[in-house]
Amino acid sequence: MKLDRRQNRLYLTRNTEYHVRNRECVGVRCRRTGRWLGRHPALRSYLLGGMDRKAKVFHLPVEGARLVFATRTRDILTSPLVDVVRPEKPCVEQYTWRLRAGVIEAAA
Questions:
Q1: pLDDT tens-digit series, residues 56-79
Q2: SS3 of 90, please?
Q3: Tens-place pLDDT, residues 21-31
Q4: Are 19 and 28 in contact (CB under 8 A)?
Q5: 12 near 1, Cβ under 8 Å?
């Protein structure tokens, strides 16, 4: 079995993209408009895993499960996943860990 060494994953729900780097949510984007959501509650939170209808948390989220993010004050549960993919390079260059002055900037 080959070890998956990817640091970045893109979790897609019907309306939202959750961009995760090493289990930290580093970007949330609206799928309809393509706009980054800088004030989304999942942003900068820790991905615990995926939850199915029976409230079982998985290590790696799978299609149909809901993402569970944890913050210091609360947990966040998303709508069901429709896909898990590798993000494109232009998206990775806009993640919040590359923030400058609190605003996501496009790569120069």
A1: 777 778 889 999 999 888 889 999
A2: helix
A3: 888 998 899 99
A4: yes
A5: no
